[in-house]
Amino acid sequence: MPTLQQNPAFTWYVITCLVLCLNLVFLWAYSGSARSKTGTAINPEDSLRFKAALAEADPPAVARVLRAHRNAEANIYPFLILGLVYVLAGGTPRTAAIVFSIFTAARLVHSWAYISGKQPQRTICFLIGGVALLALIVCIALLLIHTGATPSQIPIKAS
After folding, report:
1. How far apart are CA 112 and CA 71, in angstroms?
2. 37-60: buried (b, 16+ CB within 10 Å) or exposed (e) per residue?
3. How many CB atoms lie within 10 A of CB 123?
4. 77 assigned to some structural domain
5. How high is the pLDDT of residue 1?
6. pTM here?
7. What is the CATH number of the domain that holds 121?
8. By residue range, what is the domain housing residue 30?
9. What residues contact residue 61 under an 8 Å CB cut-off, 6+ apart?
10. Considering the chain, what percentage of its residues have pLDDT values greater than 70?
């Protein structure tokens, strides 16, 4: 039995995980950069430490990046879980490559469009990512139906 590392679907999963996590790290770092440019802080200790003006709320530029980050988290985390379930359930490498790539590309462009305030690109990419996520759910369901497995019969692959 091949190991998980020898499974091409797992390789696609790992690549997309790395890219999507880098996207989240970029958004996190960019929020700090945006905050630094405004010269404000919303926490008193940060205001003292960085000699920044204390603000009651995030400036619009910072708030936009934080919203982009929250949106990315809300979409990427379910994908990471479902992608792993797909691989462990025996999903095909071809479908993994297609669905994972579409989702990842859509999320990367969505982050850019959100930060840049680009419409309709942001909405289109959000919808494409959502459809890819739904496709992944359907693929997992079809894998379970195809095997005829009930929850108590699903084998757990150990490496």
Report:
1. 12
2. eeebbeeeeeeeeeebeebeebbe
3. 12
4. yes
5. 56
6. 0.86
7. 1.20.120.550
8. 4-147
9. 34, 37, 38
10. 92
